[in-house]
Design goal:
single chain, 7-stranded parallel beta sheet, 6-stranded parallel beta sheet, 12 helices
Length: 356
């Protein structure tokens, strides 16, 4: 039986974007019959994975020292799958190698020195790759515009929706009960997520409050908090920090709308999660978001606060004028992004390389 190695140590940060991708892909791969190959998971907490998946997978414990070339993993697997473009751990041998590319936002973020360093590392990954998987058509196009992509098979495999079943108890109360009605968003507190635009928009929407969830330990988070204080919006804007799945479902279920003015997304799972609850989705008209949002999401072309507020008011009116249609469309679209479909497509890519 062939051996497939999943460089999946981002599982240690289960509620980060990469952590969510790793976990849900692995969970779906566990359900895909594979008699011709067996997957080895590379992770820090092996016991937790063994409890959930048992003998479905083999396991190798993650050690940070394997980032360094002399200490790379020396077992010669039949196929190595690097689950995101930022991973520093590479195989010791030149073996068949799949690279999943989520986003190349590093080409515009950080200092020129950092950008150059990350470009060089990404170029090394591209040269090593025998196949490349992109999580969106945008990610594929963007990578080919900015890099000399080798002549290897390229695939687009969309992520699935992380919320398939709504498991919210009727009597559940979150740690913070927000003032209603509220708009909701979730993501890392970074320039790219553009949460400041939502706070500025709120001045023109006195009927709404705003709830933001995500890692708030950053320079951008401090700028956001300072803006909230300066505009005296402490009672209307609530910052939750990181939240777990049940709490996240509560805020999706009870918000008036999901708002996501991101400047750049390789895919963008949160809008799809919101759709699963039939909520109106307001997103930026850029990068991969139209690919994800589809024809009945509502789009911002720019981020003037008054314009954003008016777009939301018009969109909410349209939503309520045909609420049943919109809710059904959103739920159907959310369900079309399915992790089991994603896993089956990855398994076929594995077989293509293994059977060469």
């Amino acid at each position: 039986m062939k051996k497939v190695f999943l460089e999946s140590h981002n599982l240690k940060n289960k509620y980060s974007g990469f952590g969510q991708f790793n976990y849900h892909l692995i969970k779906a791969l566990a359900k895909v019959p594979a008699k011709d190959f067996k997957i080895t998971l590379h992770a820090k907490n092996i016991k937790e994975l063994e409890t959930e998946f048992g003998a479905t997978f083999d396991y190798k414990k993650y050690r940070s020292v394997t980032r360094h070339k002399p200490f790379r993993i020396k077992k010669k697997y039949d196929l190595w799958h690097c689950l995101n473009q930022n991973i520093k751990i590479e195989p010791f041998f030149n073996i068949p190698y799949i690279l999943t590319v989520h986003d190349i936002h590093f080409i515009t973020e950080g200092s020129p020195l950092l950008q150059a360093k990350l470009r060089a590392k990404f170029n090394e990954k591209l040269k090593r790759a025998h196949a490349i998987v992109y999580i969106s058509e945008f990610a594929k196009k963007d990578t080919n515009v900015h890099f000399n992509v080798p002549k290897v098979p390229e695939y687009v495999i969309h992520n699935g929706n992380t919320i398939t079943d709504i498991v919210l108890p009727n009597d559940y109360n979150p740690s913070l009960l927000p003032p209603r009605p509220y708009l909701f968003s979730i993501g890392d507190f970074s320039e790219r997520k553009n949460f400041i635009a939502l706070v500025e928009m709120l001045e023109f929407l006195p009927e709404y409050n705003l709830v933001l969830a995500g890692s708030a330990n950053s320079v951008y988070a401090e700028k956001l908090k300072a803006l909230i204080r300066a505009k005296n919006l402490q009672e209307r804007v609530k910052l939750l920090g990181k939240i777990e799945d049940v709490e996240k479902q509560y805020y999706f279920q009870n918000c008036e709308a999901f708002v996501f003015p991101s400047l750049r997304e390789g895919f963008g799972i949160p809008p799809i999660e919101a759709m699963r609850f039939g909520k109106p989705v307001f997103i930026s008209n850029n990068t991969s978001l139209p690919e994800v949002g589809g024809e009945h999401s509502f789009y911002w072309e720019h981020y003037d606060p008054e314009y954003m507020a008016n777009t939301l008011k018009v969109g909410m009116a349209r939503f309520y004028n045909a609420q049943e249609f919109y809710e059904n469309w959103y739920i159907k679209r959310a369900k079309s992004f399915n992790w089991e479909t994603t896993a089956k497509q990855y398994a076929e890519v594995y077989r293509t390389l293994l059977n060469r």
